[in-house]
Amino acid sequence: MNALKSKIRECKLSGIYNNLEERLSYANEKSISYVELLELLFEDEAINRRENSYKKRYSKAKVPHHKTIEDFDFSFQPSIDKKQVNDCLTCNFIKGRENVVFMGKPGTGKTHLSIAIGIRALMKGYKVLFTPVSEMLQNLNESKADNSYYKKIEYYLVPDLLILDELGFKKLPNYSAEDFFEIISRRYEKGSVIITTNKIFEQWGEIFGDNVLVAAILDRIVHYSKVFNINGSSYRAKNLKKRGE
Question: Regarding the domain with residue range 69-244, which homologous superfamily does it belong to in the CATH classification?
């Protein structure tokens, strides 16, 4: 048994390695065929690889909190079309290289929904990356100093889904429009983006300070996109009120 397990380990079949003795005991007890035993062992291996793949992609996704759609209170935000959100959860928009924009005041659930969709995408085998917009733009600007700019650009192009959080919450430096355009234009029709923002499209010029580039950015984002305009109140204000009461 030890020699057999050693060979299985050399072949890097950890799913089979971890379940071998249990499966052999089950096979003897149930008198199943060799073919059935092999099917069970390779099913264990497939499950193990899927779980490991998910864990690795989840770690690389950099989501700040684990948020699921089951935790979201749609009754508190009736302006959100639940059917459209469920459509996003199928991740067909990623397959079609389309975008999603969540627009609304702070605390209305934009980030929660974006993470919930991102986690569903991870479960379906997609690569996801979550980043605040200000952090991404700062990283891109700093990479220019050591000539790693295009390597950093590639970092934001690799994921099937890039989640850009909190556009408009912080004042952005003058260079931001060009770097943001670089990411959006390179991902256009090649990879999906989810953007959460507290500013309507007409106010994006104020965020970046360059109306010409903003027009080009919006043209690429809106061309293939689902836009959710959330008009409800803040969840955080609701919870604060409850604690006060």
Answer: P-loop containing nucleotide triphosphate hydrolases (3.40.50.300)
